[in-house]
Amino acid sequence: MSRSNYGVLCCSLHLQIIAEIFGTYFLMFAGCGAVTINASKNGQITFPGVAIVWGLAVMVMVYAVGHISGAHFNPAVTLAFATSGRFPWRQLPAYVLAQMLGATLASGTLRLMFGGRHEHFPGTLPTGSEVQSLVIEIITTFYLMFVISGVATDNRAIGELAGLAVGATILLNVLIAGPVSGASMNPARSVGPALVSGEYTSIWVYVVGPVVGAVAGAWAYNLIRFTNKPLREITKSTSFLKSTSRMNSAASA
Asked: What is the DSSP letter of 120?
């Protein structure tokens, strides 16, 4: 790889990391902000309203920075893409750190704005057993990653609707799993508020569950994918992950 190509690749990675920080921050600020405001204002947003905020926040941020970073905003999603050969392993730590940083900064902002009262905690806690929450986190994250894999890695899908599809999946999952586990589906979404508030109850559930579900979801879609094209062709997506494909091409030059 020439020096000029290396410079372009490094610059592109820096921009992608910044996009992941901003995207995760705004996602967390909107979603966790809705949770906090709903708790502090006697349920004025309502639970369905909170679910809608999460879905809309994901949707708009996918359209805002998806063409720059791939719009992961989720360490489990990034890891799942890496295990299925659709994201470079060497960039995994940078993406995960960026997502954790964005989530922690957003949680810190909300704590400064609304204080640290226990009832305003915007993180995720099981309402029942840890096993119940673990299972529902695995299933909902599996569903989420299955949809992401379909709309983001298969060029037969309508890539322009990727943000709408992923946002709607988040909304549905929050409606289903919110009363049980808090509907994390994202280690950064749970770890960020936990770090700021010092509340680590059952935190392992929200790391293990999303990671297992996301990896399984990515590989499940690979199992049902049917095409006579070679792998290098089906991974050249026309959707919001196309910038990642270009980055991989530049790295191999």
From this structure: G
